[in-house]
C-alpha cells in the first residue's frame, strides 16, 4: 500500500459566501489554498497525499497517528513572536498564529511518533522554529520572476549530508520564492545547502531517520529527478517500519 503522507495547508484566507457558487447568503467563509503540485509530486514518488487543514490542536496526535509521513508546504510568513523576536520587520507580510500553532503541533507530533518530515520553503522555516531556531524576517534578492519550474540560482550541497545522498549532487539548480530564511539553527539541525550569498537553503537532522527542510519549491521542479528524489526519500522513509520516540 502507498504510504499516507499528510500535506499541511498553511495558507488560510476568507472569502465572501456571496461570491461562492451555490451560496445564496453573504458573509465570510474560511478558505484553504494548497498547490496541487505538492500532491502530484508525492504521488509521483509513490505516496498517497492527504490534505491537512489548520485545526484543533487536540487533533494533532490523532491525525498523525493515522499517517506515515508529513510534508509541510510553503505559505505565508511565520509570526516572529513564535521565535522570540523583539519586533516585526517593516516588510514582514501577514501572519497567522493559528496556522503557526497548528503546523508546529503536527510537526512536533510527527517527530514524537518517529515519522519522516519534509519541509518546503515556509515548511523548512517552521522546522527550524520548532527546534528553537530563529529566522531572518527579510532577505532580499530571493524572489524570481521566472516560472516556478525554472531555476533561479545554484545551491552548494553539504558533502555527506542526507540531501547529498538523496540527490546525488554537489550542486543543485533551484528556484527561489522566499523573503525569509533560517538565521540561528534550531537544536540538532545542520545546514545541508547554501546559496551563493550564504543564505541557508536546506537544513536537516543527521540523527533523525528523515527530517529535511529545503528553502526552494522542489514540488514545482519535480520533473527533475534530483528534485523528485526529495519526495521519493520522504515516501521511502514513510514506508519503513516506524520507530516511535519517547514522549
What are the defining features of this structure?
alpha/beta; 247 residues; single chain; globular; nine-stranded mixed sheet; two-stranded antiparallel ribbon; Rossmann fold; 13 strands
Quick structural summary:
24% of the residues lie in helices and 23% in strands. With 247 residues, the protein is α/β, with parallel strands linked by helices. The longest helix is centred in the middle third of the chain and has 16 residues, at 97-112.
Task: Kindly describe this structure.
The longest helix is centred in the middle third of the chain and has 16 residues, at 97-112. The chain has helices at 36-44, 60-64, 97-112, 122-130, 162-167, 225-239; strands at 4-8, 11-16, 28-33, 48-52, 69-72, 117-120, 135-136, 153-157, 171-174, 181-182, 190-194, 200-204, 211-214. The chain has six helices and 13 strands. Helices cover 24% and strands 23% of the residues. It starts with a strand and ends in an 8-residue tail after the last helix. It has a nine-stranded mixed sheet, sandwiched between helices. It has a two-stranded antiparallel ribbon with strand order 2-3. The protein has a two-stranded antiparallel ribbon with strand order 7-10.
CATH topology-level fold name: Rossmann fold
Supply the number of helical segments: 6
Shape: globular
Q: What's the alpha carbon Rg, rounded to whole Å? A: 17 Å
**Whole-number count of domains:** 1
Structural class: alpha/beta
Full CATH superfamily name: Class I glutamine amidotransferase (GATase) domain
Strand ordering within the main sheet: 4-1-5-6-13-12-11-8-9
Residues in β-strands, percent: 15-25%
Largest sheet, described in full?
A: 9 strands, mixed
In N-to-C order, the SSE pattern is EEEHEHEHEHEEHEEEEEH
End-to-end gap: 28 Å
Arithmetic mean pLDDT? 89
Amino acid at each position: 500500500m502507498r504510504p499516507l503522507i499528510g500535506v499541511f495547508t498553511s495558507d488560510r484566507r476568507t472569502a465572501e459566501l456571496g461570491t461562492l457558487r451555490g451560496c445564496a447568503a453573504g458573509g465570510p467563509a474560511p478558505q484553504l489554498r494548497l498547490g496541487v503540485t505538492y500532491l502530484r509530486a508525492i504521488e509521483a514518488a509513490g505516496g498517497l497525499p492527504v490534505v491537512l487543514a489548520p485545526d484543533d490542536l487536540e487533533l494533532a496526535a490523532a491525525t498523525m497517528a493515522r499517517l506515515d509521513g508529513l510534508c509541510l508546504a510553503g505559505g505565508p510568513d511565520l509570526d516572529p513572536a513564535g521565535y522570540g523576536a523583539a519586533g516585526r520587520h517593516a516588510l514582514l507580510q501577514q501572519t497567522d498564529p493559528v496556522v503557526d500553532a497548528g503546523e508546529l503541533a503536527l510537526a512536533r507530533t510527527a517527530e514524537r511518533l518517529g515519522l519522516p518530515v519534509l519541509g518546503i520553503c515556509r515548511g523548512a522555516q517552521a522546522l527550524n522554529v520548532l527546534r528553537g531556531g530563529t529566522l531572518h524576517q527579510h532577505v532580499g534578492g530571493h524572489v524570481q520572476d521566472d516560472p516556478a519550474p525554472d531555476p533561479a540560482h545554484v545551491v552548494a550541497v553539504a558533502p555527506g549530508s542526507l540531501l547529498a545522498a538523496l540527490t546525488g549532487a554537489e550542486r543543485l539548480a533551484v528556484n527561489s520564492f522566499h523573503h525569509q530564511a533560517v538565521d540561528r539553527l534550531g537544536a540538532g539541525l545542520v545546514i545541508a545547502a547554501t546559496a551563493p550569498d550564504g543564505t541557508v537553503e536546506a537544513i536537516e537532522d543527521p540523527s533523525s531517520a528523515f527530517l529535511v527542510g529545503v528553502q526552494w519549491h522542489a514540488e514545482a521542479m519535480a520533473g527533475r529527478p534530483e528534485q523528485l528524489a526529495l519526495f521519493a526519500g520522504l515516501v521511502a522513509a514513510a514506508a519503513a517500519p516506524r520507530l516511535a520516540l519517547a514522549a
